[in-house]
Target: 3-hydroxy-3-methylglutaryl coenzyme A reductase
Amino acid sequence: MASSSGASKKRSSQRVAKTPTSTSTSSSNWFKNIASLPQKLPWIASLHPVHTIVLVSLLVSSAYVSLLENSLLDCDRHGHTRLCSSVGKGKQFYAAPGTEWKWYTLPSSAQLGPEVDHRAIVNLEFPGSTPLPVVSWPVDLDVDALDQSTFSVPHNKLDEFLGFVRDVNIESADAATTWTMKPQAQPRMSLSGLFRDEFAELVHRFKIASPLDVLTMAAAYIAMHLTFASLFMSMYRMGSRFWLATSVLISSTFAFLFGLFTTRKLGVPVEVGVLSEGLPFLVITIGFENPIKLTQAVLSHARKPADQTPHTGKDAASRAIPACIESAIQQEAPGIVKSYLVEIAVLLAGSLLSTDSALRQFCFLAAWILFFDCVLLFSFYTSILCIKLEILRLQKSGGGAQVQSATAANSKDLSNTTLFAEWVSPSRLRKFKLGMIAAFVLVNALNMAVLPLRSVTAPAGVTKAHHRTQGHSVDLASSASGSLETILGQAISTGQKTLVTVLPPIRFELAHNVAWDATETPSGYGMSSLLKSLEDPVLTKFIITALVISVIFNGRLFSVARKGGQDSTTTATRSNLAQSISPREKQDPSQEPATQEAQPRAQQHELESALELALTSTLNPRSLTDCQSLLRDGRAPELTDSELVALSLNGNLPLHALEKTLKDFTRAVKVRRAIISRSNATSPLTHSLASSDLPYEQYDWSRVFGVCCENVVGYMPVPLGMAGPLVIDKQSYFLPMATTEGVLVAGVMRGSKAINAGGGVTTVLTADGMTRGPCVTFESLERTAEAKRWLDSIDGQNIMKIAFNSTTRYGRLESMKTAMAGTNLYIRFKASTGDAMGMNMISKGVEHALETMRDTGFPDMQIISLSANYCSDKKPAAINWIDGRGKSVVAQATIPAEIVKSVLKTDVESMVALNVDKNLIGSAMAGSIGGFNAHAANIVAAMYIATGQDPAQVVESANCITVMKNIRGSLQISVSMPSMEVGTIGGGTTLGPQRAMLDMLGVRGPNYDNPGENARQLARIIAAGVLAAELSLCAALAAGHLVKAHMQHNRAPATQ
Model:
């Protein structure tokens, strides 16, 4: 419980730390504050997935109903065509000299020339009003009053006229009322009429479009459907054949409904024709990268070991998936939010700057769609993803809880589970759970399906008025006969061809004046739509009851199932542990504590395996043949870890090929550990590797692959200590030392203190050149001697230098030393290599130089080996001690006598005598080569490991002679190291921790101003560290403190 509480506090502190504060002013903190907002939403959604889905579904249903009731089916909101249809279809009458100035009826589809004067006649009805109210018309509408209630208006201004009529409030005789053409008094368009009207508009657009536009739209629709197919394929590769991709589309559809609702509520009209043209391009441009990225992150975190999740302890199993989702959100949310913000900003800029009204409207709508898509991604889709993984996890763990303490006193079967105080089997629990989810989805689908059918039923009064205005019983010609005669007289007098459209009468009703309308508020708007959908009392009450029951049952069911999954997983894990213990472990009591410590880790890996099953395409495992087929097709990342292990053990997947096959370095390391653990040949010894304490996560393996190590199964942490500060050439340094030997860092610290008191270390670099010693041979001794003479000549050396130097920018051949052994010729190339240690650089140059030598008079030369131990590399050799290899450094310091006495606890004469007897005479008696020192290899190895050097080269790099002298009462100490091989680029120096240490020393990477200076400075620093260590150890030996110090620091009991 303590660990669980600690993890909970840590998580809470993390969330608090991410909360935006008023003091954050930098742009990075501002973005982090915005990016942290979506991180709380997925956590709540993953803890309450069913409730989140229900809430979103209710909101979508309300928005959908509101669109149907107040927007989509309002005829007067759909442009000129629908404004006309809102008052019914008119009749057209045509008069001209050709008709002998008589009215002839024309069909509405008739097309006449521009010379025809086209007017419309509109009659306004004010039932029971005496006298008729006076209407004041705007001057720009060109309205002619034919009588008190009948008006003539140019047909091209009919749209504006009807809009004015719809919105105008005409004063009545009673000051408390006004005449108004209220929206609820208008006839509603049915869904079939809406679709018919939209289809006609699309056909019209198609007819007037150019062939290029048609081809463009066809390509856009094809690309859109390919985007959908790509979504399904991406989800299929991640293990979901249908549901996750479908959930993404549902979430996007919900975002579209929310965006359309908000856009229309804000008064921005968006026609279906514009949507039909713009949506394909929106889908293609935006795509579904964000849901796919989030899904990949969640599944990737689900693959991780359970001990990496922030929830441990009692609630580990029940919160495993929410923890994975939380970790994935923390990783991906900033990038996803940034992507959405950029896209929304671009669309808003388009809506503000575009000169095309349709484009402005669509950009505004698209911005809202993306906003709601982001919200739903972190809530609705996250809930579905959580439910999907929870269901598969529960099915893996047995489907329910193992009842323990509650059933200890009775004889009920422990394989059953209690649900609402009833005993049910796991299979019945799963069926009941899936049945409830199916019922919930079905009820919501039924609700949304029947709402449009009920919404098109208008009130009785409206229906009656609609039939009265649109029915065939109304004779528009006779009702407008007087107006037609008036217009005909004007046409005859002017000789103007005239076309008149007679519209059905528009009916006004008295409305009481109120300060505000409840339907104009957002809450009233939604409530109005929702109440209108509740007209069917039986069906509506059934839907509400089913929704309430669904929420309660699903909430309690998931709570019980999660606890059951936890208990079942624990029980199964214990059983598996008991079965996995080998006979040798059972017989050896000393192994019991280790087994007990491994039990929680094994439980976590069982949970990890359960989560891994959620990533497979089906609940049934793939056969070996299927796995081999996926491997051949290059789809190995789709395989689970256990399937990859089976393939490798079967010989289909080599250990060394995991990184290239999986394209995931960390996962490759994890799978390799599992393979080695289960290898039949070594499993008795290696079975614990997969769950061992050897770490492998949180490491940049991309810098290791192909550079530093192969068949990686983890990394070996070594304690890193800092010794110093030590003044080296008037600059202070802390020396990084990676070691497991106690007292070593402390000794360098003491030596540094004494050296600093004397003024610090002075260093000199006497030589710099890496060596490579190939061997070539000839058939005769004469030819071998001739080749040696040529190489030793000035011409030969110049030719070889030119050939060598042509292979590198930084490497420069300095000298060649030759030696004969029979017909074999050994050549020791020595070259500067810049800031690199230089083995690869010099090997490449030597190979090319030898080929040049063969082409320059020695075609019979045979190359025995590119490296023939004449270098000599990673072996004790006198040639390195005498001629040097790599960097040759001398470091010296002078320590006053009082410092020797106060800090080192000895005297100068004792130090000088001990150095002669131990480091010089003692080493000579042992026949040492380059080992005239106390322990130079200790510091060289520790600093090599810390800075990414090759530890094997400690053999020659630790060549050192320590000299001590009494100079006017002070101790002068020096170390000469002729063959120190170091570099600051390449090899282990590319790894993150080692780069950090080089950076701390100020020598990371190449020195562009003075190539090679960083590597030379590193050699000076290491030599100075050796000097401090030599001083301290010799002082301890002279004072007799060595054994005491080591017993104090090396033999301390380890912390358990």
The longest strand covers residues 762-772. Residues 794 and 800 are 10 Å apart (CA to CA). The chain has a mean pLDDT of 74. The domain at 720-769+877-1050 is CATH 3.90.770.10 (3-hydroxy-3-methylglutaryl-coenzyme A Reductase; Chain A, domain 2).
